[in-house]
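Record filed here:
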Amino acid sequence: MTDVPIYVALITGLTGAIGAATPQIATVFRDTSQAKRDRKERGVNARQQACVDLLGAAADLRTRVENTAMYGGEILARLAEIRSSAADVQVKAARVAFLAGEMATSAQALASAATDLATAAVQNTDMTTNVMSSPDFTAFGKAVEQFKSEAISNADK
């Protein structure tokens, strides 16, 4: 019977164990890398969607104010819709600020301009005649364009 040194037995055993474990270790590293890429992509998609939602809410507010100024009608209900749209802009701006901190300033500026526009709409309304004169959209338009520009430049981050 041949005496096999203990180190030969250990090396042989370890080689088999390492050979068996290598594919599993590679799989773990691959899966971890894929999970990181997926998380980053979901974050980018969530930020982009939040920006699109905010711009949509701003467009909705502008449309409601313009329609109210043009058509009048049931003015109290229309003013309530305008205030509701301004609140929606504020909530969506906060969501952008949480998801994309680098755009928080322009998102909050847009929310502030939305509030100012809703306030101007109410102030420009004659409740006795149910007529609203069109408010100045300049500051609101600038805030929308500033946010849109910033959102586009940060789209892939």
In short: The CA atoms of residues 126 and 132 lie 6 Å apart. The chain has one domain: 44-153. The chain has a mean pLDDT of 86. Residues 44-153 form one domain.
